[in-house]
Amino acid sequence: MKPVISALKAVRRFFLRKKAVYLAWRVRFDRETRLRILSKKRGVKRFFGSPFRSKPSFLIGPTNSANQATLWAKALTKAGLASQSLRISGELAKEWFTTDFALTREQWRDFSSRQELADLVASTKDVVLFESLRPIFRLQNAKDGRNLILEDFELMKLLGKKSGIVFHGSDIRDTEAHAKRNPFSPFHKESPELEKLRARTTENAALLPEIRQRKIPIFVTTKDLLLDLPDAHWLPVAIDFDRFHKVALESPIYPEVDAPLRVLFLPSRSWLKSADLIEPVLLKLRDEGVISYHSYLAGEESLTHAEVPEAIAKADLVIDQFLGVIGVFPLEALAAGRLVMSYVPEEAGEVPIINITPDTLESEIRRVASTKPHPQAGIDYVREWHDGRESLLALAEVFGFKI
Questions:
Q1: Do domains 40-238+388-399 and 241-385 have the same CATH topology?
Q2: Average pLDDT over residues 74-95
Q3: Is 220 helix (H, G, I), strand (E, B) or coil?
Q4: CATH code of the domain occupying 241-385
Q5: Using CA atoms, how far apart are residues 47 and 55, in angstroms rounded to an integer?
Q6: Higher-confidence residue: 132 or 32?
Q7: Which architecture does CATH list for 40-238+388-399?
Q8: What b/e string do you get for 56-66 counting C-beta neighbours within 10 Å, with b at 16 or more?
């Protein structure tokens, strides 16, 4: 009986080996490919399985949400940590921002493009920050039902590199919890947009247990997300401070004493950024002559990010949202020496923004229009927290390197 069992085991091992060879060939991720990744460029062995160099290099992508990957990479590079950003998108011609590496999704689907990205990381990078749990390399492309990002984590481990995850907000925010704590949350009303957003956050949240098991650090860009992910690290958003501060120097607010208050409202997504609550108030005050206001809502005139400084320069007051999040746009307005109004819940911390609710929005705008106060502390606040240096310190603390 034993010879029969041994023979069966041998046959099973033979077919398993055949299957493994076939799968390795089919997914183009066999041992030869792995070794080529590791040894193609000189100097790779110096990093494999070893501690960081004194100045580790980062690759950040692939969404470049609100230009953060590019600005963080610039802050790192300025400190001597040669780093780069990556953006994979549908159509590069319509991009708001520039990145160090930009690929269309069609280009990225070509295996050779993903291989080149892996070669780049193998030879020149020490850390990859994955934005919004989107895959970058996908070399194995195994159809085993797992999320593709897990393959990338395994590749980073194989290469002896570190991984980190960055969530920007709508990619992980618990919409139900947000609706419970924020009476003005856009998530109170069901909609196709909310359904799509919730599907995305649910998929990402399902991966959190395995991410924690792998001990991959998680970063969030807004403080409200720490309520959903208390074990995450705050990675402050960064803005191009000099570019927006130039507006404050060259275009002071209230250029005409008797002119209506100039108001700017520029939501990136109308349903998410409280347009249904804000727009009617602005139109009413515009019709009364209290303010001047030009609408940039979807379906009307739109702006590129390159045009945002000019739009802010023509405003005295910038209205943000009732989501309870301090994002990039209000910080750019503060750096430009503008007054900013937004809903500022306790978890957002102390920021030099006029705190409003839907009930106080109109009265606060009327107050500013009549008294025309000047901004206080906004420029200093942004310079201290959001010019990239605090972001650099947050990464240094978590990944354990000195600046």
A1: yes
A2: 86
A3: strand
A4: 3.40.50.2000
A5: 12
A6: 132
A7: 3-Layer(aba) Sandwich (3.40)
A8: bbbbbbbbbbb
Task: With beta carbons less than 8 A apart as the criterion, state whether 342 and 356 touch.
Answer: yes
Query: Which residues, 6 or more positions from 26, have their beta carbon under 8 angstroms from its beta carbon?
Result: none
**In the chain, domain spans:** 1-30, 40-238+388-399, 241-385
| Number of other residues whose CB lies within 10 A of the CB of residue 293 | 23
Q: Determine the pLDDT at residue 207.
A: 95
What pLDDT does 208 receive?
A: 96
Look up residue 37 and give its two tokens. 């990744």
Count the neighbouring beta carbons within 10 Å of the beta carbon of residue 89: 17
For residues 323-347, average pLDDT: 96
Between CA 326 and CA 316 the distance in angstroms is 19
Q: Per the structure block, which two tokens stand in for 235?
A: 């990675």
**Taking the CB of residue 130, how many other CB atoms lie within 10 A of it?**
24
pTM of the model: 0.85
Element housing 312 (H / E): helix 308-313
Please say whether the beta carbons of 338 and 375 come within 8 A. yes
